[in-house]
Amino acid sequence: MNRKHEDKICPHCLRIFECKVGSISLCQCTKVTLSVEEREYIATQYADCLCYHCMETLAFEFRIGKSYKAITWSF
After folding, report:
1. 20 to 30 A Cα–Cα from 73, which one of 6, 9, 42, 65?
2. DSSP-assigned letter for residue 20
3. What pLDDT is recorded for position 1?
4. How far apart are CA 20 and CA 8, in angstroms?
5. Which one-letter DSSP state was computed for residue 27?
6. Is 51 helix (H, G, I), strand (E, B) or coil?
C-alpha cells in the first residue's frame, strides 16, 4: 500500500510529525530553507526526515558553529 502521508518519529527530538512525501509541496519540511552546507551537516547526522523545528534548530546550530570557527581569537 502506497500512502501519501505517514506519521514519523523525529530522530532528533522523538516527537511524532506528519511526513507528506506523497505531497511534498504540502510537507512541513518545505517551510525550512536550508543552504547546501546546512543540508550536508544535517545529512551527516540523520538519514531520515526530521520535524520542522529540529531542521531549524540544526541549521541554526550549524550557522553558529561556522561563525564561531570563523572568529579569529587573539589575546
Report:
1. 42
2. -
3. 46
4. 10
5. S
6. coil
Q: Which residue type does 71 have? A: I
Say if residues 58 and 29 touch (Cβ distance below 8 Å).
no
Alpha carbons 7 and 59: distance in angstroms, whole number? 23
- At 39 the pLDDT is 94
The x, y and z cell numbers of residue 54, run together, are 529540529
How far is the C-alpha of 1 from the C-alpha of 69, rounded, in Å?
47
The neighbouring-strand residues paired with 17 are 8
What is the rounded CA–CA span in Å between residue 59 and residue 23? 24
Query: What's the predicted TM-score (pTM) here?
Result: 0.78
